[in-house]
């Protein structure tokens, strides 16, 4: 049976047949294409794109002439004019869509420019990942042409005088290709609903009418959806209503903490496929069943740069210094943490996306996400990453045979020293003191700096066990329900203050 039960348009099919070349060459082609397209914009004129294009080494010239940016800097210097409807600021034409993104730590929304070129590039990367499923073993290839339940943001976008704004998933869903519309669930009517609870209820009611093969979304919300469907129809598992369910496409947070909970809801094993789709673009995807990580999309309108994530390039709060050391794809090394800078076909230039990654296979250009530049704990030099936290939680949940979904950690004062305060969600019976000891021991095994500091200034570990619903209720109180909203793994600043108020019953 054929892998794909629909025929792709010829224009897309041609676009997918890009010859393989070295990573360096692919990336330089992307950079030159971006520079040529935007050379007559205000940004391109100020930063001498014509001169860069004529230089002998355009990659190095680009790095020497164009400064690095975080969101605050690029918005206040450039993007705010595009938001006001001014054309040709950082990308040709008027920007008609902006993705609203607050990541997992910021209290106010960011406006990320979305162009028709970026939407098309995201679609092409999605198709490439879809086609890569042909290499997967022991999965029903016929499932690819069946229903895709995508639990994303609302397609009902905020309208201003010159633009529409909303979740990227909602913008993408509003612009899905015609040939995909028959497979896309929950469909345009339900997807337009801005009330997540009502949307979920409508999905549950429609569930028996759909033949779902793919689930797509953030783990916590997908798990909640499956639980409600199983409860509504008194099922033993989700495969009783969706027998062809074979794939779960996930991204944004590590899946491991959720897997045990997922497995309880399934009638048989499914294939998990990881993606790296940020508001700024589709950066990477898993293209092999047993891949160590995700393959970077090197030849599709994103130019990548990598900043070593160390104290030379970032301060103690995770802010990048003014002139960091920046590497291109051919200069990176395996098993080192890097923060990512991207330049895209939406007028995003040398932009710090906020994630940290590690190359696990240089030959295949495969990465894993290790955390966020501001989501790590190093109160006294313990250098505890989200990757360490995820691995410790995975190991402990397996040892105790419990399901841990959400968790978060905060650094807090403890007498004259410091402590890590963990908040862990599980509905299983567990002793918090035992859980604390086990997490502490696993982190000592995983992180030498942590082990050293536990003997000195990091004096205590505190663990509070909460219900999964507590985490959901906090997200609801913050207006971050459903779609692509994720609970932060590290709490700092305003989010920590709001969380502490929420737990004591105060309004946030």
Q: What does the model show?
A:
The protein is globular. The protein contains 17 helices and 21 strands. The strands form four sheets. It has an eleven-stranded mixed β-sheet. The model is unreliable at 1-18 (pLDDT under 50). 34% of the residues lie in helices and 22% in strands. Helix 10 (196-206) crosses helix 11, helix 11 runs parallel beside helix 12 (256-265) and helix 13 packs across helix 14 (432-446). The chain is an alpha/beta fold and 508 residues long. It folds into three domains: 20-69 and 302-344 and 346-372, no CATH class; 118-278, no CATH class; 376-503, GMP Synthetase, Chain A, domain 3, CATH 3.30.300.
Please name the defining characteristics of this protein.
single chain; 508 residues; alpha/beta; GMP Synthetase, Chain A, domain 3; 3 domains; 11-stranded mixed beta sheet; 4-stranded mixed beta sheet; 17 helices; 21 strands; 34% helix; globular; acid-amino acid ligase activity; GH3; GH3_M; GH3 auxin-responsive promoter family protein; GH3_C
């Amino acid at each position: 049976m054929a892998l794909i039960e629909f025929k792709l348009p010829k224009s897309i099919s041609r676009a997918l047949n890009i010859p393989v070349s070295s990573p360096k060459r692919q990336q330089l082609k992307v950079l030159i294409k971006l520079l040529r397209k935007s050379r007559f914009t205000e940004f391109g004129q100020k930063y001498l794109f014509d001169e860069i294009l004529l230089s002998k080494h355009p990659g190095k010239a680009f790095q020497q002439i164009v400064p690095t940016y975080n969101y605050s800097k690029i918005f206040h210097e450039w993007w705010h004019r595009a938001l006001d409807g001014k054309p040709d600021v950082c990308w040709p034409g008027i920007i008609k869509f902006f993705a609203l993104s607050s990541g997992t730590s910021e209290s106010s929304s960011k406006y990320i420019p979305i162009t028709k070129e970026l939407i098309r590039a995201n679609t092409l990367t999605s198709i490439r990942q879809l086609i890569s499923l042909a290499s997967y073993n022991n999965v029903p290839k016929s499932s690819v042409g069946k229903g895709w339940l995508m639990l994303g943001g609302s397609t009902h976008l905020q309208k201003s005088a010159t633009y529409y704004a909303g979740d990227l998933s909602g913008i993408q869903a509003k612009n899905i290709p015609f040939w995909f519309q028959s497979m896309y669930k929950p469909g345009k009517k339900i997807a337009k609903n801005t009330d997540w609870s009502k949307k979920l209820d409508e999905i549950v009611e429609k569930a028996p009418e759909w033949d779902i093969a793919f689930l797509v979304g953030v783990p916590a919300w997908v798990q909640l959806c499956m639980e409600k469907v199983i409860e509504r129809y008194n099922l033993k598992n989700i495969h009783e209503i969706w027998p062809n369910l074979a794939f779960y496409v996930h991204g944004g947070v590590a899946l491991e903490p959720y897997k045990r909970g997922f497995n309880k809801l399934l009638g048989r094993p499914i294939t998990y496929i990881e993606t790296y789709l940020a508001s700024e673009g589709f950066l990477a995807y898993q293209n092999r069943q047993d891949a160590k990580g995700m393959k970077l999309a090197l030849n599709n309108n994103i130019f990548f740069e990598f900043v070593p994530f160390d104290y030379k390039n970032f301060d103690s709060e995770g802010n990048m210094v003014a002139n960091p050391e920046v590497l291109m794809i051919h200069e990176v090394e395996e098993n080192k943490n890097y923060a990512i800078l991207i330049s895209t076909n939406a007028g995003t230039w040398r932009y710090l996306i906020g994630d940290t990654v590690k190359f696990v296979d240089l030959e295949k250009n495969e990465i894993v996400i290790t955390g966020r530049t501001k989501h790590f704990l190093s109160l006294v030099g313990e250098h505890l990453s989200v990757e360490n936290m995820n691995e410790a939680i995975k190991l402990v949940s397996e040892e105790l045979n419990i399901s841990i979904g959400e968790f978060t950690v905060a650094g807090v004062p403890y007498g004259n020293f410091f402590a890590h305060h963990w908040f862990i969600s599980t509905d299983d019976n567990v002793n918090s003191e035992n859980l604390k000891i086990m997490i502490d021991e696993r982190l000592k095994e995983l992180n030498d700096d942590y082990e050293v500091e536990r003997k000195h200034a990091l004096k205590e570990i505190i663990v509070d066990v909460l219900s999964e619903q507590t985490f959901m209720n906090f997200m609801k109180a913050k207006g971050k329900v459903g779609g692509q909203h994720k609970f932060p793994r590290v709490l700092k600043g305003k989010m920590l203050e709001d969380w502490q108020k929420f737990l004591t019953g105060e309004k946030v």
